[in-house]
Amino acid sequence: KQRIGVLTSGGDAPGMNAALRAVVLAAEHYGMEVMAFRHGYEGLLNNEHVPLKSADVLHVLQYSGTIIKSARCPRFKEVESAQLAANNLDSLGISALVVIGGDGSFRGAHHLSQYWKGQIIGVPGTIDNDLYGTDATIGYSTAVAIAMDALDKIRDTADAMDRVFIVEVMGRHAGFIGLKSAMAAGAERMILPELQKDKPLTIAALVKHIKRVEEVRGAGSYVMVLSEHQWPGGAVALSEQLEAEYNMPCRPCLLGHIQRGGPPTPSDRVLASELGVHAVELILQGKTEVMAGIKAGEMVEVPLVDTWTKKNPLDANLLRIQHEIFNPVKKSTRS
Ligand code: ADP
Most C-beta atoms within 10 A of its C-beta, which of 49, 98, 109, 198? Predict the structure, then answer.
């Protein structure tokens, strides 16, 4: 029987369990055995492994987190680590490894591929949606749903008090969560890493926008979505500055790791299921060093290296709509 390995690595993402389940069910379907390594690459180095059968994973897809645990493993960057991992995989008779994780985990997989002859398949598991070549990553839909839910709740209280709120969301290098949740919740403004590169936020410009919105619409709430790490000290510091320097009452709200928990959305469970099965089928096809992805509803395979060296841009139409049509202070182009 062919034996494959699987692990979850780096930041956990809702739907990782659904992906793991799909890998195990597909492997059994095709007559393979699955060995899971606990705690990501750390478990691969420490030989912390458990066999997984369908009975172990049947009812895990409704939970976020990962039943085989995830971890960061800084020493995996060393050559000796990759060699040790390769030896461990070989002595267990494993011929292919499925890595469920984000760009860091895929860099690790690529590093391992330099020292191991087995097949390596990536499954995109990250809330950030920042992997090239796939329309969505596992966990992104859930993170957006959670952020939207929080923004709706903030809106209720913000509206009652005609107040300004800054809601900090995850995605320090990619604004996908920020953009989609801002649109889904009708936020007045968003500060995303991609936009910051072109035109970094100044507090004066923000105050001007808040005041213009009030002039145009009358008093009301103003909710801003801020991706983490886009302002020194984040939402807390920015709201304090607004109050102290401009006498503008403002409240911060940090969503943090709440964005990674709770039941995964149907989209994430189904995406994870499809990609997990796809990963096993790519193994059967003899593929290696690719990520299982989805493009316009089709299963695709993306060279692992492309997933972090190339970038998916933010959706240009969503940006246009947010900035030009939904922005309360943009003048109409038609009179
Ligand atoms: P994510 O997969 O969520 O992006 P990290 O960036 O923390 O998470 O990466 C997860 C793990 O992948 C790291 O702790 C490390 O073990 C491994 N890794 C990341 N980058 C490299 C690299 N350049 N070489 C080898 N291993 C790496």
Answer: 98
